Amino acid sequence: MQILFSQLKALVFYPYYLAIGVAAFISTVIRYYPNAAFSGADLRCLCAYLLRNPYTLAQRYLRNFPDNEVQKIYGESFFSTLEEIAAAVGLNERDVIYDLGCGRGRGVFWFNAFYRCRAIGVEITPAFVTTARKIVKKARIDGVEFELANLMDIDYGDATVIYFYGTAFTDEAIGRLVDRFVSLRPGTRVVSVSYPLNEYAKTPLFEVERTFKGRYLWGYADIYVQRKL
């Protein structure tokens, strides 16, 4: 019965998500593809997954991990939302930005192409990292790196900005990650979606500089720009 319900739910929502995806791609081509560095990387990325569904790839690989280790629901941020985030933190070529749970890496390529910053994607799914690294090599892209790792295990010592789209993480997982952020340099900005990170800190670690609404595939969410104290 549960399997049948899941299949029926997919049939009901698939046309909606397909329509949103098509509209997002058209918007991306019009607004962002004039940037040759980005369009070249993004088209390579999209072509690499024509016969491989990234949502299915992620779900199959992550299903054997404990719930408190990974976010099992795959999602990608709209570039228009990333643009709002970049403006909110004043992203520039001197920054080092980490995209936690970067998936295919499209956002990493976007940050680097438009702001010339060093952009690092952290992803636990091997297929995504392998493909992204091939794109970096073939397109000869400078300033982009992909780390195959659990985001709980990364040293963020050189970060100036961290983007954490962890809406579906468990409270335990968020708490563990925030513990890692204790060692961030003062002034490092961390952007989180749906919740401020101080709610999960043992002592106040951040000052919320700005909150605004951002658009995602599933709707609008609060985005918090926080500065490490």
Description:
Helix 2 (36-48) packs antiparallel against helix 5 (106-115) and helix 2 (36-48) packs across helix 6. The protein contains seven helices and seven strands. By secondary structure, it is α/β, with parallel strands linked by helices. The chain has helices at 2-32, 36-48, 54-62, 79-89, 106-115, 126-139, 171-180, and strands at residues 96-100, 118-123, 144-148, 161-164, 189-193, 206-216, 219-228.
Architecture (CATH level 2) name: 3-Layer(aba) Sandwich
Largest sheet, spatial ordering of strands: 3-2-1-4-5-7-6
SSE string, helix = H, strand = E? HHHHEHEHEEHEEE
Q: Which class of secondary structure composition applies to the elements?
A: alpha/beta
CATH class: Alpha Beta
Largest sheet at a glance?
Answer: 7 strands, mixed
Number of strands: 7
Strand content: 15-25%
Q: Structurally, how many domains make up the residues?
A: 1
The helix content, as a percent range, equals: 40-55%
Shape: globular
Write the CATH homologous superfamily.
Answer: Vaccinia Virus protein VP39
The fold-level CATH name is Rossmann fold
How large is the count of helical segments? 7
Give start-end ranges of low-pLDDT stretches: 1-14
Query: Could you tell me how far the N terminus lies from the C terminus, measured between alpha carbons in angstroms?
Result: 50 Å
What is the average per-residue confidence, as pLDDT, rounded to a whole number? 90
